[in-house]
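Re: the request from the purification team.
They wanted to know what the chain is likely to look like in 3D before they choose a buffer screen. I agreed to run a prediction and write the result into the notebook, where they can find it.
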Amino acid sequence: MEQIKNKHLTVSLSAHGAELQSIKDANGKEYLWQANPDKWGRHSPILFPIVCGLWNDTFRINGKEYSMSRHGFARDTDFTLVAQSEQKAVYALHDNAETLKVYPFHFNLAISYKLVGNKIKVVWHVENTDRKEIYFQIGGHPAFNVPDLKVGEPLHGRLRFDEAEPRRIFGNVKGCIAPEHHTVTTENGIFEFTEESFKDDAIIFDHSQLHKVSLLNKENKPEVTVDFKTPAIGIWSPYGKNAPFVCIEPWYGIADWVEFEGEFKDKYLMNKLLPGCSFMSEYTITIGELRAD
C-alpha cells in the first residue's frame, strides 16, 4: 500500500484496482468508507471499460458477443505503480492476454492521485495503443462516511447539489436504465437522503446537470465536496444494509438502455479514441471547507 500526504491530508492507496483506501485529515479523522464486507467491501473502485451494467452482461463488437460484469474489470485488476512522490502517485494498466479475452482492444490506462492543499485530484488517462478505433467508458465510485451518524443509527444525511431541480433516471431494470426522467425534490439544492432514497438503486443524473456535490454535516457545512466535468453522476448507498456511507460517482458512461442489443460503440455515453489518441479528465475531492492552498 502506498501513501501520499501533506499538512492537510494523508491518503492511502492500493495498486489493486488503483483504489483509494483512506483519506484522513490532520487530526486523523477518516472520510473514506473502510470497506466493511458486511455492507460493501470496496472503498473507491475505478470503473473501466464500462460503467454500470450491460443488458444480460453482454456487449457486441462487429456482431461478436463478449461478456463483462458490472463496472468492468479494472477494479479487480492489479495496476503497476509507475511514479510516486510525497504528494502524488500514478498507477498504470496495459492490455494483456486476460483483458483481451473480454475487451478486444489495446490500451494504456493511467490513474493518478495528487494532493493540492485539502484537495485530492484524481486524473484518468486512457491511451489508444491499437491500430483501430477503441471504445470505452470510465468512472469513479468513491464512498464517503456520512457525518454525525451514531453506530447503528438509520442512514440519513444531506447533499448539496449545484442544481436545485435535477432530473434523474432509473437504472433498476436488471441494472439497466429507462429513458424517462423524474425531478428530484431539493430545498434550494439540498437533498435529504435516507436508505429509502436508494430503494431503486443509484440516483442517476445525466445530461451534465450537476458539476458539484457536497456531503454536509449537521451544521450544513461541507465535509466532502466532489467537483467533476462528467456527463453523468450517480449517488448510491446499498439498500437494505443500513450502511453509513454514500457514494458520489462521476461517470463518463452509464448502463445500457433496457433491452439494448446494439453494438458496443453505440452504447449511450460511449467514448471513442482513434489510434494514437488519448483521453484525459479529472475530478476533485475536497475535504472540509475550500482553501486557497
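For the purification team: The chain is about 0% helix and 40% strand.
Please add any questions underneath this entry.
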